Structures are given as structure tokens and as C-alpha cells.
Amino acid sequence: MRKLVWVLLSAVLIGIAPAAGQDMLDMVDLTSDQFTKAEMSRANIEAGIAKLEDGQKLDLTAKALNGLDLSGLDLRRTVLQSARLMKVNLKGANLEGVNLDSIWSLNSDLTGANLKNASMFGAQFVGSKLDGADLSGARVAGDFSKASMTGVKLDGADLSADEKNQSMGLMRGTFRSTNLEGASLKGANLNRAMLEFASLKNADLSGASLKESEIAGADLTGANVAGADFTGADVNSARIGAMSGAAKNLDEAKNLDKAYRN
Q: Nearest CA to 37 among 69, 13, 70, 65?
């Protein structure tokens, strides 16, 4: 419930209707100050963190931090819900365990960032770069469409649809046309996740749950699917012929007759 509140708050803060859900990109002015300017500098953030006492966190809720170079920063003691970090450099930043719910970070660079156990509910990372980033154990119910996520780690991550709160639309991991080549998703929960036209070449999906996921048009060439559960997954036009390992319930996938199996 708390996560839903933050998503709703984010919608109110940027002046859009809550019903937009994960289609909010169509309803915001990405040229406005709140998505193009920064109200703080890197130096301000570093100074704020340095002044923190034990147990304290730097509250950056809903702050506009667009375009900043925050590469390499240890941001584990920050609060970033609903913040706008458009086109931000977060290469190598440490965001382990940070709550990034409702964050806006389109076209940003998070190459090699540490996002272990982070929460990204309702987050917007469309077109961003997360190559080699570590999202192990993270809750990922945000939009990563058209992002570059080669070699990313999502082991044990939860990318599944949120079945309880759908007033904002279906919140889930969304990876339309995302490059996930060589990604590690061992044991990940991908139930009802959106992966249409994603590239999962040579990805490790061993032990992952793909129940009722949408994989239409995705490329799983060379992917390790040992023990991966495909019950109810839509594989229409997906390339599944060169997968390795024994998948579970592949015969129960939807549109299996329309998948490319050669």
C-alpha cells in the first residue's frame, strides 16, 4: 500500500492523472523545468550526506536533479522517491537498498551501478543504460523499455506484476525492445512481466518463473532456460529454437505454434 501511495504522490507532484499508470510518458511535458533543470548540485548532495548523523538519511524526495553527474557516489543514505534524474550520470553509483519508487530517470547512465535490493515500483528508466548494473534481489515494477541492459544482474529479482494495487494500471517489470543480452536472471520472478521484442540472447534464465509473461517477438537465442517455468507465457513470434537447458511447461506456453523454433 505504501508503494502505491508513492506512485500516486508522484502523479500529483507532476500534475498527471493517476489512471495513466505506466503510460505516463504520454502525459507529461518532458521539456519543463522539473524534467530539465536541477535544484541542487553534486556538491550540495555530497555536503548533505557528509553532515548526516548515524541513522539519518538525506531526503531528496521529489527533487529535480536532472543532468547531474553523480557517478561513483555512495547514495545508500538518500531518499529518492519521486525524484527526477533525467539524463543523469550514475555510472558506478552505490544505490544498494535505496527506495527509487516513482523515480524519473529517462536516458540516464547507470552503467555498473549497484542497485541490489533496491525498490523501483512505478519507476521510469526508458532509454537508460544499465549495462553491467547489479539489480539482484531488487523489486522491479517499472518501465525499462528500449534500455540497454547487457550483462545486467537480476538474480532473484522480482519483476512480476503487482496483483493487489491496479488503480494506476498494471504495475510490472516492462522491458519492451530492451537489450538484455547476456543478462543473468537466475531465479527471478517474471510472472506477467512485459518482455515483448526484448533481446535475451545468451541470457541466464535458469530457475526463473515466466508464468503468463509476455515474450512475443523476443529473442531467446542461446538463453539458458534450465528449470524456467513458461506456463501461460505468450511466445508468439519469439525465437526459442536455440535455447539451452530443459524448460518447464514450455508446452503450456501460449501461441507456441507461432514461435520460431528453428
A: 65
pTM for this prediction: 0.89
Half-sphere exposure of 165 (CA within 13 A, CB side): 16
CA distance 98 to 23: 24
CA-CA distance, 141 to 161, in Å (whole number)? 7
d(CA 230, CA 247): 7
Calpha distance 173→133 (Å, rounded): 16
Task: Give the burial class of 227: count Cβ atoms within 10 A of its Cβ; 0-12 exposed, 13-18 middle, 19 or more buried.
Answer: middle
Using alpha carbons only, give the angle 88, 185, 133 rounded to the nearest 5 degrees: 25
Residues sharing a CB contact under 8 Å with residue 197, sequence separation 6 or more, in sequence order: 176, 177, 216, 217, 218
- Run of H or E including 48: helix 42-50
Task: Tell me the helices (H) and strands (E) count for the chain, helix number first.
Answer: 3, 4
**pLDDT tens-digit map of 164-192:** 765 556 899 999 999 999 999 999 999 99
- What is the C-alpha separation between 102 and 87, in angstroms, rounded? 16
Q: How far apart are the first and last CA of the chain?
A: 45
Local structure of 125: helix, strand or coil: coil
Nearest to 140 by CA among 22, 248, 225, 232: 22
Sign of the C-alpha dihedral, residues 100, 153, 150, 214? negative
